TrEMBL record, chain A:
Membrane listed as a keyword: yes
Stretches assigned to the ABC3 transporter permease C-terminal domain: 282-394
Protein name, entry field: ABC transporter permease
Species annotation: Microbulbifer halophilus
Annotated MacB-like periplasmic core domain residues: 74-245
Chief localization: membrane
Automatic annotation (TrEMBL), chain B:
Protein name: ABC transporter permease
Pfam families, alphabetized: FtsX, MacB_PCD
Signal peptide bounds: none
Transmembrane segments: 310-335, 364-388, 400-423
Annotated organism of origin: Microbulbifer halophilus
Main location: membrane
Length: 401, 437
């Protein structure tokens, strides 16, 4: 370990090449560090529990070809049929959550208020709504058949009962008991009683700031935006999807039916985040690879250049491991310089990304773990040429002087 | 001389295949990554209406909650209420004007083998085609009356006409849309601007409408839009008429103002329009309206979003690392060849010609890197198309211009990378090498 002085003086003679490697490592650390916080944030976003049985749910939309179609009657007839199908656990007709399309409202805890509403997604469905989405009821009761109204958005109908998510309950009645309390829509005085609380539902827009606030009303609406939401028994989803497509067409051929899985719709919603994750990971991977290539290339070059000196050192009694150690130590010095540059550059990059693109702040721990990985890559890249250098025979030194 | 340098470069590259391959790979990967994101950004920031940038304007009126501005950069709703759109259409100031929204439904042909299928539709006033300069292949737009009274007339896109009628002149024929029979009055050439500048509320890069219907059909068909409807107060909606008379915003509006005088008059008109409505107790916010031309509209709607811009910065940083890498490798390679340069110098080559010889060599590496970089870009774009699940199909593709830029970027970066190493080698003192040979 006392070889630092000769290493430093040798490096000084190659200062430009050494600095180039250090700068490369530094820039790579800055990019990889920032990419990994973004990746981490997006992955956490996608991994959040949705509160809904995403993998088991199939949805079906239909569009009637005939004019003046009695949609409510079709809903009733189809639901009766769907619930009889083998492999179906529960079914309702509602707007489908997690798809990027839905309805939002403002809720108040006092009547006749104009400002200070809590923003929330809203859903409608019948007594199987909670079951079809497989939401967990944590307090109160589920809707029963007698709660359900069949109506339309242009009827002026207002709900009198609602189920809300735990998160919404908490936001409306900070800390207090929400069950049995009333909420109000807009500046109205019609009380809507909270009869039940479900654990979670990310609603139509999982990336929206108000995601997780959701209210459910006991009603079937006469609207083209309602789809059948069918939960299959575990493992039966694809069979149910196929059956659903067949049976719905058979039940009434005068319509265009589209069957999709909820998973597919959620994947589509997260496609942007997913693209970012994949692109950033490949960028980080490729960069590290390129830097490693650069280090291999340069170390090989240095070793060829110094073949004679290595031979002389070997002839003077340096062991093989001392030769390898020399190059590894040299690389370590360069890498540490690069990482110091990189830690500073990463913070500057992050400041720019955070202020310009609202990206998360880069914690020092992330930078340091990326730095450790890069250090490892850098040393590994030196290892092969360094071991080869150790094989240079002392005879080389005597041959050509 | 250049020819000789190129042949020297080729020989030198063959002499050190591994180091050369490393450099070509580094440049190719750098060019591939940056061209992938630059292509996306370039395609996303196109403006299909650029030639009408001086005369087309998206109209916004600030009719929103008095307590809270609309949540977007313009602080005004993107769309208008139905009743305001209908009133605006009465103005005779704009040369053309369009009130419209997205819709859709199943389309079918009586007595045809074709199974009914769902199409994207646009419910619009008749000027749509004139305002956006969309040429007709057959027929034309519907008459003025159809913008106010229900007329079951329809304009088909070329593709729809191809699908339903095998591409023949279908004007006068009947199609079934949403359960009602419509008479075809025109067929337009396919019009797929990307980004979809005329409608940025419903997926910026998705496909445009396949059929077009008159704006006078709302009451007859009770049309609810396939797009955003936003509201800010609770309203008693007991009928479709209430929906049309509500403060809900769901109509997109464009006006063509050809001269500065027209612009001036239209601004006055909009000011008066809002004042009038304020007097009736509507428009509770301070008087404000927006007229944005297509490029302003694209910027306002943030078509190129933060993620996209971040990726292009990132890929430029990536290219920078690849460049630094290339500098280091070139330096190594040239220094290794220093004895050759020494001999050439001793035989009378000037420092400058050694410099250009090595710069040419860097350029050759860049050219090879650029060619492979194009392949990598194509692979990158294909991956992005797949990852984006249809959101990016129209933008994740490369044209000739972008391919040439890729080569240009590669050569430029390799020349930049070659500058220092070539300078360094051109200053070689020949005597050292002559001694050891």
């Amino acid at each position: 370990m006392l070889e630092l002085r000769p290493i430093l003086s040798a490096l000084w003679r190659h200062k430009i090449s050494a600095l180039l490697i250090a700068v490369q490592l530094g820039l790579t650390l800055a990019i990889v560090g920032n990419a990994s916080v973004v990746i981490q944030e997006r992955m956490e976003r996608i991994a959040r529990p949705t509160g809904v049985a995403v993998t088991d749910i199939v949805t079906a939309k239909f569009m009637p070809v005939a004019k003046d179609y009695d949609r409510l009657r079709a809903f009733r007839r189809d639901l009766d049929m769907i619930r009889q199908l083998p492999g179906v656990a529960a079914a309702t007709v509602s707007r489908v959550p997690l798809t990027g399309g839905g309805s939002r409202t403002g809720l108040h805890t006092k009547p006749n208020r104009e400002v200070g509403a809590t923003s929330s997604a809203q859903f409608w469905g019948d007594e199987q709504l909670v079951d079809a989405l497989d939401m967990k009821l944590v307090a109160g009761r589920d809707f029963t058949a007698s709660d359900i109204t069949e109506t339309s958005f242009s009827s002026g109908w207002r709900p009198s009962k609602a189920i809300v998510t735990q998160q919404l309950a908490g936001e409306l009645f900070a800390g207090g008991e929400a069950l049995g309390k009333a909420v109000y829509l807009g500046d109205e005085d019609n009380p809507i009683e909270i009869v039940g609380i479900v654990e979670r539902n990310l609603g139509p827009w999982p990336n929206a700031p108000d995601a997780g606030n959701a209210v459910f009303y006991p009603a079937i609406m006469d609207t083209q935006w309602f789809d059948y939401v069918v939960r299959a028994e575990p493992g039966q989803r694809d069979a149910v999807a196929k059956l659903l497509e067949e049976k719905l067409a058979e039940h009434d051929p005068q319509r265009v039916v589209t069957v999709k899985t909820l998973q597919e719709q959620l994947d589509r919603y997260y496609a942007g985040d997913n693209t970012m994750i994949k692109v950033l990971s490949s960028v980080a991977g490729l960069l590290t690879f390129i830097v490693a290539l650069g280090i291999v290339g340069l170390t090989v070059f240095w070793i060829t250049q110094r073949q004679k000196q290595i031979g002389v050192r070997r002839a003077l009694g340096a062991t093989r491991s001392a030769i390898s150690r020399y190059f590894l130590l040299e690389n370590l010095l360069i890498a540490v310089t690069g990482i110091l540059i990189g830690v500073a550059a990463a913070q500057i990059f992050n400041y720019f990304l955070a202020s310009e693109f609202d990206q998360p702040a880069l914690p020092l721990s992330t930078t340091l773990s990326c730095a450790l990985i890069l250090l490892g890559v850098s040393l590994t890249a030196t290892l092969v040429p360094a071991l080869r250098a150790a094989n240079i025979s002392p005879a080389t030194a005597t041959r050509s002087v | 001389m250049i020819g000789y340098y190129i042949s020297l470069a080729m020989r030198s590259l063959r002499g050190t295949p591994i180091l050369s391959a490393l450099m070509v790979a580094a440049i190719a990967v750098g060019v591939g990554a940056s061209m992938t994101t630059l292509t996306l950004n370039y395609m996303m920031s196109r403006n299909a209406l650029a030639d009408k940038d001086d005369v087309l304007f998206a109209v916004q009126l600030d009719n929103w909650d008095p307590h809270k501005a609309f949540h977007n950069p313009s602080e005004m709703p993107w769309q208008l209420t139905y009743k305001d759109a209908i009133d605006l259409l009465r103005s005779d100031i704009p040369s053309h004007q369009v009130a419209m929204h997205r819709w859709g439904g199943p389309i079918a042909l009586e007595g045809s083998e074709l199974r009914p299928y769902t199409v994207e539709a646009r419910v619009t006033s008749r000027d749509f085609f004139a305002l956006f300069d969309i040429p007709f292949i057959h027929g034309g737009t519907w008459p003025h009356a159809a913008d106010n009274n229900s007329a079951y007339q329809i304009v088909l896109s070329q593709r729809t006409n191809e699908k339903l009628f095998g591409g023949e002149n279908s004007v006068g024929r009947t199609v079934n849309f949403n359960g009602a029979p419509f008479t075809v009055v025109g067929v337009i050439e396919d019009w797929q601007p990307s980004p979809k500048v005329h409608d940025l509320n419903n997926g910026d890069f998705l496909e445009s409408a396949e059929v077009f219907l008159p704006f006078g059909l709302h009451r007859a068909l009770e049309i609810y839009p396939w797009g955003n409807t936003n509201g800010w107060k609770s309203e008693d909606i007991n009928s479709y008429e209430d929906q049309l008379g509500s403060e809900y915003v769901w109509i997109q509006y464009w006006a063509q103002l050809d001269t500065p005088e027209q612009m001036e008059r239209y601004r006055d008109y909009l000011t008066g329009f809002i004042r009038e409505r304020k007097a009736q107790g509507r428009f509770p916010r301070p008087l404000k309206f927006g007229l944005s031309n297509p490029s302003e509209w694209l910027a306002l709607n943030e078509v190129v979003d933060g993620d996209d811009r971040m990726l292009s910065w990132l890929s430029l940083a990536f290219l920078l690392v690849c460049l630094v890498n290339a500098v280091a490798l070139l330096l190594a390679k040239f220094l290794r060849k220093a004895p050759e340069a020494g001999v050439r110098r001793a035989l009378g080559a000037s420092g400058r010609s050694i410099f250009s010889q090595h710069l040419v060599e860097s350029g050759c590496i860049g050219f090879a890197g650029g060619l492979i970089g194009i392949l990598m870009t194509l692979v990158g774009l294909a991956l992005i198309r797949q990852l984006a699940m249809g959101h990016m199909d129209t933008v994740a593709s490369m044209n000739w211009l972008m391919m040439l830029s890729a080569i240009g970027l590669a050569i430029l970066s390799s020349l930049l990378a070659g500058l220092y190493p070539a300078w360094r080698i051109s200053r070689t003192n020949p005597s050292i090498y002559l001694k050891t040979q």
